[in-house]
């Protein structure tokens, strides 16, 4: 089977793109033509392009298939779901004679049931495309003028500057009187592109050949309209709170609350009865001292009064707080403080961390560093999400030679980086 696809891409497999939907037209003798793709964004709605509202015979689509990466075989049919279309909702300003507002949502007749091959996608909410390569997925044509592929294909594209894009794609003034707009995204690759029938945001572009360019609808420009139509928040917190799917794990993140290594992290508490230990954190560096951020201990709540290693562990009372004398509220420099405890009563669970010293441990930038972040706790899908509960995760970062902050003598800031893309705004 030929797997060189859409144009210069490769075959995608079960569970790799769990949101992918094929939009079809039922023909005579129960055959179905899948001419468009889409993304499952809630258990009831699929996001697609408005131009997919009809085929060349002006007929609307009537069915959606999910969880199937080979439409011509029965290889993964046990995970597939075929659901009739209840409504095809085009953006109200879309016109077939124009290449603007090319976005739509498809309402299904019943809810999708999540499984190992099917799950909702998190909608990208940022105004700009990610800096990394963009995955484009679909059952697109294998090349210009060729038939659609029966197997799910993936290609990687780079976002392209709008000025360069306008030079590469000749625009028809009748179809695009405003030229390329801010609600459109241009993307290209030297050896691959998406073709007719591909993923949900493809609008138009040059033929599927080496170095071809595609124009896509920028979904973030239409979030208000999409959320109104699906009657649900598509925030990152809600999306990542869906924990009924076997999502592909980010290998750089350990999402276990109980670490496998010696635990030296404590949470700062302002009241003894509080249970949220992820408001601010610190590291035990001695059995009576914790190192933390000056910003944490000088908030409008005043200094913290206790530290704890978990929400239900013993509380250690704080005796005194020492803020760095050169720290200025609102400035990033000298953002360090020492907390002195009366005593630490939870020694079975905690052990002091050793402060890094280049003389003893070499250059910190040569090693993977474990960092912590507070994230909304993932939980099973319910009608409403409780996103106030947080959990603590660890992930690996790397030392980096770079400048950050002002170029001043007292700049004590260092750079770290994490290569895999994280959900924007989720970690705190």
Automatic annotation (TrEMBL):
Compartments where located: Secreted
GO MF, one example: serine-type endopeptidase activity
Keywords: Disulfide bond, Glycoprotein, Immunity, Innate immunity, Secreted, Signal
One Pfam family from the record: Trypsin
Protein name, as recorded: Peptidase S1 domain-containing protein
Coiled coil feature spans: none
This protein's GO CC annotations: extracellular space
Family: Belongs to the peptidase S1 family. CLIP subfamily.
Record flagged with keyword Glycoprotein: yes
InterPro entries: CLIP_Serine_Protease (IPR051333), Peptidase_S1_PA (IPR009003), Peptidase_S1_PA_chymotrypsin (IPR043504), Peptidase_S1A (IPR001314), Trypsin_dom (IPR001254), TRYPSIN_HIS (IPR018114)
GO annotation terms (biological process): innate immune response; proteolysis
Oxidoreductase recorded as keyword: no
Coarse class of the protein's main subcellular location: secreted
């Amino acid at each position: 089977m030929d797997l060189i696809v859409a144009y210069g891409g490769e075959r995608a497999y079960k569970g790799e793109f769990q949101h992918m939907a094929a939009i079809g037209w039922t023909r005579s003798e129960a055959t179905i033509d899948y001419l468009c793709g889409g993304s499952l964004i809630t258990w009831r709605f699929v996001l697609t392009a408005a131009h997919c509202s009809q085929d060349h015979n002006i007929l609307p689509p009537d069915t959606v298939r999910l969880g199937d990466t080979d439409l011509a075989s029965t290889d993964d049919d046990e995970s597939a779901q075929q659901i009739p279309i209840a409504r095809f909702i085009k953006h109200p300003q879309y016109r077939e004679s124009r290449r603007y507002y090319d976005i739509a949502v498809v309402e299904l007749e019943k809810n999708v049931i999540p499984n190992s091959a099917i799950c909702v996608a998190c909608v990208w909410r940022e105004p700009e495309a990610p800096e990394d390569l963009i995955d484009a997925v679909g059952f697109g044509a294998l090349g210009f003028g060729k038939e659609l592929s029966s197997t799910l294909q993936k290609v990687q594209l780079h976002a392209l500057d709008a000025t360069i894009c306008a030079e590469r794609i000749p625009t028809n003034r009748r179809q695009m009187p405003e030229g390329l707009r801010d609600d459109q995204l241009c993307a290209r690759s030297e050896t691959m592109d998406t073709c007719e029938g591909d993923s949900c945001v493809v609008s138009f572009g040059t033929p599927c050949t080496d170095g071809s360019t595609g124009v896509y609808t920028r979904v973030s420009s239409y979030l208000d309209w999409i959320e109104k139509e699906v009657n649900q928040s598509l925030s990152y917190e809600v999306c990542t709170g869906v924990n009924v799917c076997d999502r592909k794990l980010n290998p750089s993140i350990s999402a276990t609350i109980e670490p496998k290594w010696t635990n030296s992290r404590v949470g700062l508490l302002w009241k003894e009865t509080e249970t949220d230990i992820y408001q601010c954190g610190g590291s035990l560096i001695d059995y009576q001292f914790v190192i933390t951020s000056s910003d944490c201990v000088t908030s409008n709540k005043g200094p913290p009064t206790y530290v704890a290693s978990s929400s239900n562990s013993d509380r250690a009372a704080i005796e005194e707080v020492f803020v760095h004398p050169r720290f200025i509220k609102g400035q990033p420099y000298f953002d360090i403080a020492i907390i002195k405890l009366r005593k630490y009563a939870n020694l079975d669970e905690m052990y002091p961390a050793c402060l890094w010293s280049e003389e003893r441990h070499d250059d910190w930038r040569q090693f993977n560093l474990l960092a912590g972040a507070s994230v909304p706790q993932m939980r099973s899908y319910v009608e409403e999400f409780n996103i106030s509960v947080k959990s603590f995760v660890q992930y690996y970062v790397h030392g980096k030679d770079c400048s950050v902050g002002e170029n001043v003598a007292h700049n004590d800031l260092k750079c770290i980086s994490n290569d895999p893309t994280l959900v924007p705004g989720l970690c705190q």
